[in-house]
Specification:
It is built from 21 helices and eleven strands. By secondary structure, it is of the alpha+beta class. The chain has four domains: 139 residues, Beta Polymerase, domain 2; 101 residues, Hydrophobic Seed Protein, CATH 1.10.110.30; 95 residues, Methane Monooxygenase Hydroxylase, Chain G, domain 1; 56 residues, Serum Albumin, Chain A, Domain 1 (Orthogonal Bundle). A seven-stranded mixed β-sheet has the order 3-4-5-2-1-8-9. β8 and β9 form a beta hairpin. It is elongated and about 95 Å long. The protein binds adenosine-5'-triphosphate (ATP) and magnesium ion. The site of adenosine-5'-triphosphate (ATP) has 12 residues, from α8.
Length: 400
């Protein structure tokens, strides 16, 4: 029995077949199925042209019709269905200048990057494998379809994809493919940052990330990555951290930001990450510096919030190879804080102005901060009357 994710899509394949065309599962889903790995999403390839697909299914959306991809919306979900195609004239080491729709499965599989990704499976679970992808999967080998030099010059991103598959699958790069990787790494400079970032994020999330980082070094591909050119020592050091595998993608961006020379925000911007991600990691980098210098004070924990504090502590532990359960202690400390947010203070600026009979000004903010600190450190209870009396006592002792 095929896994449910395929089962649900089989009626689509059958519908296309009934209309007189071929349809197959292709790409990563077939590879991951044969590997017994979890399947992300299923891609479907077909001999039907986009207009023919739109005639078969009532609900569709043109999401990449110029490349032959139509989104089919069915009750069981949304599926990308792509017409078999060849690609030609890669004038600029990246995307093809022209794509041509074809009717032959083999022609479509031939344009794919690696043998393990050039497999197709029909509705009955029969696998089509003209480039011996199954054998390479068994041997745990990454090999280009056709001559590696040609395939990497056509689209240089494939080299970085190779490294990310090393990271995700732990495979070895076959010797001729490796030779081309070393020879052509410079061509990666032609690739748009966004495409590099997508592959790099998958790479740093893989189980074999240390191995992949080493491969970035030996192939010199790292020289073509934003903010990492010339950072050989950094990559070397990071790849050797025993706890590297314990970090998620956000935490690895923070780790990288804390190792590279220069501004973390500039580094993250060079990868064109979303501005929210840049903001968060930049804040966390500041917290990490404070945590490194002074440890976790109640104030630092309060101002960080538990999510940021958690990321920071994970990265701190990774940098210093601390594998003990310090993280749980941190969560306990956070939950023990009398207040978690300024808004939880029982007193407001308005109260202060009323009590003192004075207009607003910088003194309000300063006083609130003093109260906040006193409440955080347990010097006073967070209760309106206690705070009022405490302020009076403070004022009296200031007068004396
Ligand atoms: P994932 O599980 O991460 O989605 P995937 O192998 O499905 O891995 P995708 O980026 O989703 O990777 O691409 C789908 C398929 O399209 C690949 O398996 C491969 O056959 C083909 N492909 C993708 N990018 C390229 C490329 N740059 N050159 C040639 N073929 C490619
Ligand atoms: Mg995929």
């Amino acid at each position: 029995m095929l896994p449910a994710i395929f089962q649900e899509a089989i009626p689509l394949l059958k519908k296309i077949e009934q209309a007189g065309f071929e349809a197959y599962f292709v790409g990563g889903s077939v590879r991951d199925f044969l590997l017994g790995r979890p399947i992300n999403d299923v891609d479907i390839a077909t001999s039907a042209f986009p207009d023919e697909i739109k005639d078969i299914f009532p609900r569709t959306a043109d999401i990449g019709i110029e490349h032959g991809t139509v989104l089919v919306i069915e009750q069981s979900g949304e599926y990308e269905i792509t017409t078999f195609r060849t690609e030609s004239d890669y004038g600029d080491y990246r995307r093809p200048d022209t794509v041509e729709f074809i009717r032959s499965l083999e022609g479509d599989l031939k344009r794919r990057d690696f043998t393990m990704n050039s497999l197709a499976m029909d509705a009955d679970g029969r696998v089509y494998d003209p480039f011996n992808g199954q054998e390479d999967i068994r041997r745990k080998v990454i090999r280009t379809v056709g001559k590696p030099a040609d395939r990497f010059s056509e689209d240089a991103l494939r080299m970085l994809r190779g490294v990310r598959f090393v990271s995700q699958l732990g495979f070895e790069v076959e010797p001729l493919t490796m030779k081309a990787l070393n020879l052509y790494s410079r061509l990666l400079s032609h690739i748009a940052v966004e495409r590099k970032t997508m592959e790099f994020e998958k790479m740093i999330g893989g189980d074999h990330r240390a191995k992949a980082l080493q491969l970035l070094l030996t192939s010199s591909l790292f020289e073509q990555l934003p903010g990492l050119s010339g950072q050989k020592e950094v990559i070397q050091e990071i790849s050797g951290l025993p706890l590297l595998k314990s970090l998620n993608t956000d935490q690895i961006w923070l780790l990288l930001s804390s190792y590279i020379d220069g501004s973390p925000a500039e580094f993250l911007k060079s990868w064109k990450l979303p501005s929210k991600v840049i903001k968060e990691r930049t804040k966390e980098k500041q917290i990490l510096s404070k945590r490194t210098d002074e440890g976790w004070t109640k104030e630092l924990l309060f101002h960080s919030g538990i999510d940021r504090a958690y990321n920071v502590e994970k990265v701190y532990n990774c940098i210093h190879s601390i594998s003990s359960g310090a993280i749980e202690g941190l969560t306990d400390d956070y939950h023990a804080l009398p207040i978690k947010d300024r808004k939880e203070l029982m007193v407001t600026g308005k109260d202060l102005m009323e009590w003192k009979g004075q207009k607003g000004g910088p003194w309000v903010k300063e006083t609130l901060e003093r109260i906040e600190k006193a409440v955080l450190y347990g010097e006073i209870r967070n209760d309106l009357e206690t705070i009022r009396r405490w302020l009076e006592t403070c004022r009296q002792s200031e007068r004396n």
